């Protein structure tokens, strides 16, 4: 009997923004304690894996020049971790199609790692449970676990402990992509410098969770907050102009996504998002804009070219 030729397995995985990001003190392992609310939005990377003679990594799409093609690529690290776990050689071709801005504070690399875990475990028919996949994800990086789950979730620890939260309604966003990137460790370093050893300020998460449960975007708009924003703006002062422009264009709130420099603008509804995006695009305050919605699901196998 002829065995079927394995076709690539393709996984689509979303970007995240942080609706709330409270950065605590530095831990003995050098990471900061975080309390965050992750929210997966409809900007996606696609990760395909297929058997190959030689381990191969291809990257396509926006910002590819900034994406490492060696063993430091997070998707490739996921492949090596899973190969080690399966006791197999990593003889696969991995193809990344980037729709998530690189070094944009939207966890694109982490998304690719989550996507690679799901794609390769499907290709190799490993039948790993969510728990096992989450354990592997946490080994790879703080945001990888959320990439698996998607939705809207509370993240604690260094972000790798993730539990879903009740979020009643679809939220409408305009995402402003910046011209350059910001290094996440450098932004945390800048925050430490700005704090100068002072105690981290209180930023309670409960009002955000209540607003999400209530489903009123205006209530949520009042409670969005990101401790890394001041540090990102200090390193990239033009962001101040971008944030102001989004609100002037009609967004009900704007914030820096994670460590930046991407900015996310919450809009009252989908029509408002289209209007804000159009106006923002003409203002020259960012490289490009995208309209997005959330929450969307985490990493999952798709048939190729399935629409979002
Ligand atoms: P973080 O997840 O650390 O907040 P980020 O979301 O700001 O980061 P990423 O797009 O994940 O940004 O990229 C951060 C850096 O990680 C890049 O500058 C790049 O050198 C490296 N990197 C490793 N693997 C990948 C990948 N698969 N895609 C994009 N960048 C990657």
TrEMBL record:
One of its GO terms (biological process) is isopentenyl diphosphate biosynthetic process, methylerythritol 4-phosphate pathway. InterPro entries: GHMP_kinase_C_dom, GHMP_kinase_C_sf, GHMP_kinase_N_dom, IspE, Ribosomal_Su5_D2-typ_SF, Ribsml_uS5_D2-typ_fold_subgr. It comes from the Bacteria. Belongs to the GHMP kinase family. IspE subfamily. It catalyses: 4-CDP-2-C-methyl-D-erythritol + ATP = 4-CDP-2-C-methyl-D-erythritol 2-phosphate + ADP + H(+). Keywords: ATP-binding, Isoprene biosynthesis, Kinase, Nucleotide-binding, Transferase. NCBIfam families: ispE, PRK03188.1. Residues 209-281 form the GHMP kinase C-terminal domain. The active site is at residues 16, 143. Catalyzes the phosphorylation of the position 2 hydroxy group of 4-diphosphocytidyl-2C-methyl-D-erythritol. SUPFAM superfamilies: GHMP Kinase, C-terminal domain, Ribosomal protein S5 domain 2-like. It is an enzyme of class 2 (transferase). This is 4-diphosphocytidyl-2-C-methyl-D-erythritol kinase. It comes from Pseudonocardia autotrophica. Its EC number is 2.7.1.148. GO terms for molecular function: 4-(cytidine 5'-diphospho)-2-C-methyl-D-erythritol kinase activity; ATP binding.
